[in-house]
Design a protein that fits this description.
The protein is α+β, with helices and mostly antiparallel strands and 130 residues long. Helix content is 41%, strand content 8%. A four-stranded antiparallel sheet has the order 1-2-4-3. Helix 1 packs antiparallel against helix 2. The protein starts with 19 loop residues before the first helix and ends in a 19-residue tail after the last strand. The chain binds iron/sulfur cluster (SF4). The site of iron/sulfur cluster has 14 residues, from helix 2. Keywords: Coiled coil.
């Protein structure tokens, strides 16, 4: 098991690459600019909508990046599997079934290298120390 020293815990978050949805929003914004229409009020509403969606996506990407970082530095992630949570029913929690491993004792664990979203707001996070 690798360990992480204090130095390794310095923030070095790399934001995720632009998603397909973000590209679609950019494209939509460009198309909106090109539309020659006298209905300025309608344009303003659409721009505001696109702007809100873009901001939300930016925050989601930041949250995802934090989840990835936490999944890599948490002491409960052993060999990429979170040993802190025992998942009773992954489908009810919105966790894909292909990121679940079942231990010999029947406990279900999440492979956080595949589904780091679970780490984003996890209250059990503890930094791994050497
Ligand atoms: S942050 Fe939470 S979900 Fe992620 S590995 Fe640590 S204990 Fe598990």
């Amino acid at each position: 098991m690798s360990s992480v020293t204090e130095d390794n815990l310095k923030p070095n978050i790399v934001l995720l690459s632009t998603s397909d949805l973000e590209q679609e929003i950019r494209q939509l914004t460009e198309e909106l600019k090109n539309v020659k229409d006298n209905n300025n009020e309608e344009h303003k509403k659409l721009y505001a909508l696109v702007d809100n969606i873009t901001r939300t996506l930016n925050w989601i990407n930041i949250a995802k990046s934090q989840g990835i970082w936490k999944s890599k530095t948490c002491k409960h992630a052993i060999n990429f599997v979170c040993q802190a949570w025992n998942i009773s029913d992954e489908s009810k929690l919105g966790i894909p079934s292909d990121v679940i491993v079942i231990n010999d004792d029947g406990t279900k664990r999440v492979v956080v290298s595949k589904f780091s979203e679970i780490c984003i707001v996890c209250p059990l996070y503890e930094a791994r120390r050497s």
